[in-house]
Amino acid sequence: MSAGAEAPGAAEAAEKRGLVIVYTGHGKGKTTAALGMVFRALGRGMRVAVVQFIKGKWKTGERLFAETLPGLTFLVMGRGFTWESDDLSRDKAAARAAFDEAAALIAGGEHDIVVLDEITYAIHYGFIAEGELLSALRGRPAHVHVVITGRNAPDALVELADLVTEMKSVKHPFAQGMKAQIGVDF
Ligand code: ATP
Ligand code: MG
Predict the structure, then answer these.
(1) Total structural domains in the chain?
(2) Tens of pLDDT along 31-80?
(3) CA 103–ligand 2 middle distance (angstroms)
(4) What's the CA gap between 31 and 185, in Å, rounded?
């Protein structure tokens, strides 16, 4: 590819404002889409933070890879906690801590993209108030993109967002009894 094919330039990109991007729906690909954007942005030298609102004991390929990338801030909810019991108050405290970190990352403006992976579940379970997320988004520095993933995105979030994609499941191997596979699902 010639250098001329590379577009847009940095000056053009600087005019763009930060977006709220939501990947929701029941089909596979929400987290994958967010991580694809992270990959792209890191290639552009952008500063990126990912906060995963999933239990930290679950190892994922993205988490293992993130540890090798110094330019990427990658936080997993409840990392360092023990998760032996299904203690709801502990889940709530972990979600709260993750949200507080995420809100600080968004407000700080040092990261061009902040991904809140699976945060819709924390809202669904009442761990985080929907209004708190909306306030964090509304108050963000103008250049910051926030990417949100998870099923059942609340209506008010869809309303506020600039870009919403709903993943629709047409086929999934789970229906044929196939379990999640390493490198494909986690
Ligand atoms: P991924 O992380 O693979 O992009 P996702 O973020 O869209 O998936 P989640 O709701 O976070 O989906 O669920 C993660 C897990 O659920 C993955 O193992 C994924 O393969 C599985 N999954 C996603 N969609 C479906 C579906 N329609 N039927 C069954 N399992 C699914
Ligand atoms: Mg996901």
Answers:
(1) 1
(2) 999 999 999 999 999 999 999 998 777 789 999 999 999 889 999 987 65
(3) 20
(4) 10
